[in-house]
């Protein structure tokens, strides 16, 4: 069955462009559009999309609050949120990830990246582009701890190897890159990542990356 996508952006021209790109793919179906967060909530309830392509800066209700309500404990459907950002302007992207977004994508990304990102998120994975993630977290380091604070007790539930994996996830490395760095198989890395998410009560790699920075395990700007 086709992946059902809801487009949320306050610029109709952008929504039209996204629709043209997505409807050219046999496995994607645009089921609706919304111009602000409030409309997005109504459309999610009515249309039950699989993925919401969410702008951040919109009137009435922004994308951060809409994401929080769509993915929160009172969620009314299976929708996952993929945040759209212009990067240089959107200082709220980290907040959107904390709110429950499954990843983010630059608005000027090539069409094939947009399509692939939707497929990845719909499959239950996180769209965590390594280079952009690192730049984003470093750019907004003022929103995050300095790294001098004591790490939370929950980290004590992780093994040393799981802590290593979490640090590498936070730096935006893929499973293949982590496997090469640690000289283990990708399957082993996937197992470690799964244990990290379960032990820390996190939903996906995006939340794991944010957790690592917020907890002080990884210092913004550190190599």
From TrEMBL:
Keywords: DNA-binding, Phosphoprotein, Transcription, Transcription regulation. The keyword Transit peptide does not apply. It comes from the Bacteria. GO terms for molecular function: DNA binding. InterPro entries: CheY-like_superfamily (IPR011006), NreC/VraR/RcsB-like_REC (IPR058245), Sig_transdc_resp-reg_C-effctor (IPR016032), Sig_transdc_resp-reg_receiver (IPR001789), Tscrpt_reg_LuxR_C (IPR000792), WalR-like (IPR039420). Residues 151-216 form the HTH luxR-type domain. The keyword ATP-binding does not apply. Residues 4-122 form the Response regulatory domain. The modification 4-aspartylphosphate is found at residue 55. SUPFAM superfamilies: C-terminal effector domain of the bipartite response regulators (SSF46894), CheY-like (SSF52172). This is LuxR family transcriptional regulator. It comes from Streptomyces yokosukanensis.
